[in-house]
Write a structure and sequence with these properties.
With about 130 residues, the chain is mostly helical. Helices cover about 70% and strands about 0% of the residues. It has 6 helices and no strands. Helix 1 packs antiparallel against helix 6. The longest helix is centred in the C-terminal third of the chain and has 26 residues. The two termini are about 20 Å apart.
Amino acid sequence: LDMAGSAIGILLAFILVRHVGSDGHRTVFAVSIIPISFSLPLFFLVHEKGETRGRVKGTLLEEISRLDGRLTLYLTVTFLFTLGNSSNSFLLLRASDIGFDGGDTILLYFLYNVTASALAIPCGKLSD
């Protein structure tokens, strides 16, 4: 659902860029402040359940050593993969370099998010 929500936001940005023009990036960023201004106050409504006061935390290495070995391995592999994973921003910059205009580049990013959203559950089940 996170990717689907991103896709909706990207599609709205694409429509706005097409309406305003490809040089209207400031307008797109200004309009994006509207949903942010509604969502940020919701964070103040979220409260943790349970009591965490009184617990003395150790150093990061001490806390990591307390983790289950399988979780530590998973986090290590995920960290290494993230280091080697190219950012989508670089792919979008490359698309811009080879001739896509601003609106089309946004549409490519929308297509990426829709594809990732559609394949997330079936590929996740296959992975599990």
